[in-house]
Write a structure and sequence with these properties.
Layout: E1 5-11, H1 18-27, H2 37-43, H3 49-59, H4 66-82, E2 85-92, H5 94-98, H6 104-118, H7 123-128, E3 137-145, H8 150-160, E4 170-176, H9 188-196, E5 200-205, H10 211-219, E6 225-228, H11 236-244, E7 249-251, H12 253-258, H13 270-275, E8 280-282, H14 287-290, H15 294-305, H16 309-321, H17 329-341
Parallel strand pairs: 1-2, 2-3, 3-4, 4-5, 5-6, 6-7, 7-8
The structure holds zinc ion (ZN).
Zinc ion binds near residues 9, 204, 227 and 285.
Length: about 350
């Protein structure tokens, strides 16, 4: 049985596996520029950030209807459940879909169908004793593309209003895509508007951008978690602040290797970050493209970095501590108790 964990840094568009991409393309009458899943899988071995982004945005063309988004989320949640994920806070990029003529309602209604299905224990699988017998609690976080304009972000927030918590599934806003050259302060206004609406706030910062972007995301955008945040280690004062305030960092180790934030996993600063007292979590980012889901990332850091079982337990505990479960502390306590009770195999 896998270690129970929460996933806090997961782009649903990044869970599109080659088989599903072909199935959705066929359903929607779209011809992909690949002969078959083998050829597409080879394209997933991208060479650099730009070839990843080209493939990532190109394949989104197959996502057109509510059914497509429901099937995408369903496939992710099945894989996540099998790897011990109990709670997932899922990112999506409304602007990337709007640009293709797919409205935010189609995305949210479709994703929501799968999230609702997985929100309670799976009775049929519970009866058969399957590993995915437990349900998964979920929330949605809409991300603004930081290489788009601040005005576009404001329009996107406006369009999302019918789907915001407490009545809808969207609990927060985030900031993703190409970081360098697009500092957090560019989005001050939309984050202020999100705060006024009672939304939670996170942002990608300090992945490829400098540590100053992390400070700016905290000070100007008022974010509660930093996505990635790897480069905080270059600034001891920032590390001291993040430790003091216990600001969660959502690290994505396999993503860092594939996008060359670190050369090899053995060089990943995760152990040093934990030793420094940072509240680190381990997540999968875009698992179909980066070589693995949440449990795969845990396995990879255990092997490459020699993390002891109690370190893994700390990471799992952190994932629930850092999750936006303030509306359901009873659930958080239940998840945390599961982590403490977990027995590591030989
Ligand atoms: Zn990300």
């Amino acid at each position: 049985m896998p270690l129970p964990k929460a996933e806090l840094h997961l782009h649903i568009e990044g869970t599109l596996e080659p088989e599903l991409a072909f199935a959705l393309a066929a359903r929607n009458g779209i011809t992909l520029p690949y002969a078959d899943t083998d050829e597409l899988r080879k394209a997933y071995e991208f060479a650099d950030l730009q070839s990843f982004l080209n493939l990532y945005y190109g394949l989104m063309a197959v996502l057109r209807t509510e059914d497509d988004f429901a099937d995408l989320a369903d496939a992710y949640l099945a894989r996540a459940a099998a790897q011990g994920v109990r709670h997932a806070e899922i990112f999506f990029d409304p602007q990337a879909h709007l640009a293709r003529g797919v409205g935010i309602g189609t995305v949210v209604e479709g994703l929501g169908r799968a999230l609702d299905r997985w929100g309670s224990p799976r009775s049929s699988e519970a009866e058969s004793g399957g590993e995915a017998a437990h349900g998964i609690s979920t929330q949605l976080i809409m991300c603004f593309l930081r290489d788009e304009s601040a005005g576009s972000a404001l329009e996107t927030l406006e369009a999302a209003k019918p789907y915001l918590a407490p009545h809808g599934p969207i609990v927060g806003v985030g900031l993703d895509s190409a970081e360098v050259g697009h500092p957090p302060a560019k989005f001050r206004e939309v984050y202020e508007a999100a705060a006024a609406l009672g939304l939670r706030r996170v942002a990608h910062a300090g992945e490829e951008g400098p540590p100053a972007y992390i400070t700016e995301a905290l000070d100007v955008l008022g974010v509660e978690r930093i996505d990635h945040g790897l480069r905080c280690m270059e600034d001891p004062e920032l590390v001291a602040r993040l430790v003091r305030d216990q600001v969660p960092l959502t690290l994505c180790p396999l993503s860092n290797v594939r996008l060359r934030a670190v050369d090899v996993l053995a060089d990943h600063p995760l152990p040093a970050m934990l030793d420094a007292g940072l509240l680190c979590t381990v997540n999968s980012d875009d698992p179909a493209y980066f070589g693995g889901y949440a449990g795969d990332n845990f396995d990879a850091v255990r092997e490459a970095l020699g993390l002891a079982p109690e370190r893994l337990r700390e990471l799992a505990r952190n994932s629930f501590t850092a999750s936006f479960l303030e509306h359901d502390e009873e659930r958080r306590a239940r998840y945390l108790a599961e982590v403490e009770a977990y027995e590591f195999g030989a």
